[in-house]
Records
---
Amino acid sequence: MALDPPLKESSAVDIINHDGPCKHPFPNRTNVSLLTITLGFVLALLLAITHHLFLSYLHGRDIGNFSQFWVKNASNGFANVFSICMAYAATRALLQTK
């Protein structure tokens, strides 16, 4: 029974230059990244459209029928969730690996 030769340790230079045993240090997850980028952007777009429709519905209405406190908070909520979705999509786009 022959012993296998010891594996060469990979250094950072080997990984960067692809000279060592590790030919692909990062997995190819482009399809997953593209899906999450697209879903984040589409969700943000849907939130922006919903926010616009919500404010268009309220435009010109009597203020006595609505609590200004809740209208303002709902509007801020839409804006914050939109920002989170756009930041998520942008982060996934910048950090995708191939």
Note: The chain has a mean pLDDT of 77.
---
Amino acid sequence: MKGGNTLTFVVTMTPTGGLKSAVALACAGALTGATCTVSPSSVTAADGVTPQQAQVSMTTNALVIPPTRLPVPAPPFVWRWIPLFLALLLLALVPKMRPIRVRLGMAAAVILLAFLAGCAGSPTAPKGPVPVTLTITGTSGASAHSVQVNVMVQ
């Protein structure tokens, strides 16, 4: 589904064992800033046999804030230190060079490599679709049953 839109689907409650009491339905797991609702919020199979349906709607904002549970991979540890090592190597070679232009060029290279070593990257929002798992729960008395629905939000 695209951010800023509403996803709607139907869930069916099928009573077992002649269940005739009301079943409260709830939806959880929507992204921050999104809403998930079930209508009607309660269904009852009066005869204890006939399946009952409810409509689930998830509405997202145009800008979807990704969940915090998505890990952002960090660059391998070794790659963070290679530019710094090269900068130190160049720094060791600077005193042996005589012309001022070469020294300035080497100093600029050291500063650039030190900057690159310090900027290992920052976590950013994923560019592609964000997986969302909605949990629809039906509760009647002390009994509760859940089903999960996987949705991709772009």
Note: The beta strands are 6-13, 22-28, 35-39, 42-44, 52-59, 130-140, 143-153.
---
Amino acid sequence: MTAPRRDILVAFDTPSDRRRRRITRLLAHYGVRVQKSVFRVQLTPRELEGLWHDLQRVCLPEEDALLLAQIAPTGYRALGPQPELELPLTVGF
């Protein structure tokens, strides 16, 4: 049985253009871009751990800000066009 997917919002900020590109490429493998530095992903707990591990390898805690927040199924409202997540997404490097 497959673990249920969680809806996660990922937001980041970095002063480094190089790290910004790397983080953006990484997150694009996992989900869809909502704004320039905000992505929406749907992950199993194992995939979430993998994403967190990958982000820790790219980010510098003393310079970058990173937030991963789980979205409750009925805990948000949206206005305007919303990008659709097409599952399954394939993650590969």
Note: The beta strands are 6-13, 31-35, 38-43, 65-70.
---
Amino acid sequence: MKNDINIEEKIIDTVRELSKTLRFFDRKSQNNTGVTLNQCYMLDLIRENKIMPLSDLHERLGIDKSTTTRLIEPLLKRGLLEKMKAEHDKRASYVVITKLGEEVYENARTRSFKSIGKVLEQIPQNKHLQVVESIDMLLDAFNVIYKRPVAVGA
């Protein structure tokens, strides 16, 4: 029997399923920690940079400005981030992560590692690196074609 697989269709279907699964994982994570994966990425980026201009956040995260605002507001209200005005330009704002923000981030990170550990238990150990390499290869190809800005941790 001839293998009639359409690889483009298979990749699109797989990426779609991965996206749906990650959204489900995001909702589950939010139930446990009170922050979404995107909010965690934001906390991580700000934590790594110590202080972050609000104007840079959307580009560094690869999301729209309006999405950045929607993600950051609950973090400010919960006291996980603090907003500051620039001394040299009162129109410019910066954000810094608070001690509480650091604690929530570390809790979310620990829970994510545990969750990913459970997922990895479902995959043969000798295939773990292959999974990472395959996802990295696909991401690199997308980033070359679509010139996506470098995101958190890259």
Note: The mean pLDDT is 86.
